[in-house]
Structures are given as structure tokens and as C-alpha cells.
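Our collaborator T.R. sent over the components below with a one-line note: 'Predict the complex.' Nothing else. No constraints on interfaces, no templates requested, no preferences about which chain binds where. So this is a plain run: every listed entity goes in together, and whatever single assembly comes back becomes the starting point for the next discussion.
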Amino acid sequence: MADLAGIEAFADVKRLIVVAAHPDDLETMCGGTVAMLVARGVEVFSVNCTLGDIGTQAAGISRTTLGSTRLAETEEAARLLGIQKTYNLEHHDGELVPSLELRAQIARLYRITQADTLFTFDPYWTGQIHPDHRAAAQAALDAYMPSKMPLYHPEQLNEKGAMVGLLQRIFVFSSDRNPNIFVDVNAIYATKIAASLAHQSQFPNGEENLDWMKALDMKAGAQINVTYAEVFKQLDVW
Ligand SMILES: [Zn+2]
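Returned assembly:
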């Protein structure tokens, strides 16, 4: 296949922010690439818009308890991946909408972290059946432009270290719109699995619960003749 890029597509990235909906989205969607970028010295900030507080079929567990469990699991996964800092916007799982409030919350994090690059879901993938994934990604894209404008929520700029947003690059994952960046993650795949399994509440039976993730990564890997790959598409922004 022509015109495919690999990890070199991220050569200029120094500070990466990943906006997802749920604890475990980052790990399972792009955990390998994140670990490789951390190893190269990139500072990574993880944002989950929801607490993931309906993510169980188990009886007798409250949303509050599940939400706290998932925050702790996120921290453990972040430690394994070498993520600099995690943020949770504490919306409820299954109820996320790309509101003005969410847009401003994400813009604030662009301003505080001074990230130069964004990873998020592709909100326009027609197969994206999870409303939270669509909403998180839509709000993340919508926050890009206003975060750069000083008159947008100027109070955010009074926070320590905050400046107008510096994002220069946006890459989406879970996209069917001709993704062309295939990152060979074989060398780091054990780390991706370990970080994903840190979400014990989601994968209580261990690696067998990750068959779906491996299948996706193998499908991507087949495109570049390796076992496992992660896929992205870069959006044109200016
Ligand atoms: Zn999710």
C-alpha cells in the first residue's frame, strides 16, 4: 500500500494530549504508540471525559464505587505507560454530550498543558456506535480553535502556567476515513497489554478479555506485514 507512514509521523511531537471518553480508551486504542512516544521523551497528558461509571455487568456495585475504582485503575495504567498526568472531567458514562461546558473544560486543558499535539477518536467514523466516544472527540476538535483565542474564557488564562492553546497537530484513531498512519507496536505490545489489564474492572479474566483489541491491532498489522499495529489519520489543521 502506498503513502503509508509509521511512528515517524509523530517526529515533531513534544507534548501530547489524548482526549478519550472512558478509562481504558487510551490504553486499548493507542497505548502502544503512547508508550513509544514516552520512551522518546514526549510528555503525555491523558484526559478522560467520563468516570466510566456504568462500565460493569456486575450486580451490587454503585456508580460511585465503580467511578473511584476506575480512577485508580487509570493511575496504574498511566504509571505503566509513563504518562505525565491524568485528568478526569467526571461526567457520567453513557451521558456525554459535546456541550459548551465540555468544550471549555477541554480547552482549559489545552491551555494548561500547552500540548502541541492531540490524539482523539474520529467523531465522524460512521461506525462509531458509542455516543461518548463521538461526544468526547467532537468536543476535543471543537475546543481546538477557541483555545487559541484570548477572549474565549479569559479567566482560564489566569491559572498558573496557562497560556493560549498551542495545538498544531491532530491525529484521530478509530477512523474509517482512509487512515494512513500505521504504527508497528510489536516491540512494546507487552506494555500495551499490561496497561490495558490495569483496568481490572473491565478485563477481569485477563488477556482473554483483550481478544477484540488484538484482533483490531492484527487487522491493522496486516496492512504493513507486522503482527500488531495501531492506526491513525492526521487531520489538516492550520
Ligand atoms: Zn470507551
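Summary for T.R.: The longest helix spans residues 63-81.
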